[in-house]
Recover the amino acids of this structure.
């Protein structure tokens, strides 16, 4: 049985932005614009990378950072 995900909507210049809580993790959120998935973040597990392009960025960062050492970085968009 699937659980319904809580959602919050916000008007933005491009239309409607929706923050949808992940049904499997209480601190995880999916960001949608006009129903199109844009981003995902799990505040309790920042290593949980849902989108393929973000996993690839994570792999590159892993090549340059020592193992098991946190990296402070910001991704400002891929487009």
């Amino acid at each position: 049985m699937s659980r319904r995900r809580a959602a919050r909507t916000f008007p933005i210049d491009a239309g409607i932005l929706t923050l949808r809580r992940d049904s499997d993790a209480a601190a995880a959120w999916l960001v949608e614009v006009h129903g199109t998935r844009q981003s995902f973040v799990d505040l309790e597990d920042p290593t949980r990378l849902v989108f393929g392009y973000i996993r690839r960025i994570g792999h590159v960062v892993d090549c340059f950072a020592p193992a098991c050492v946190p990296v402070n970085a910001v991704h400002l968009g891929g487009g």
Observations:
- The mean pLDDT is 85.
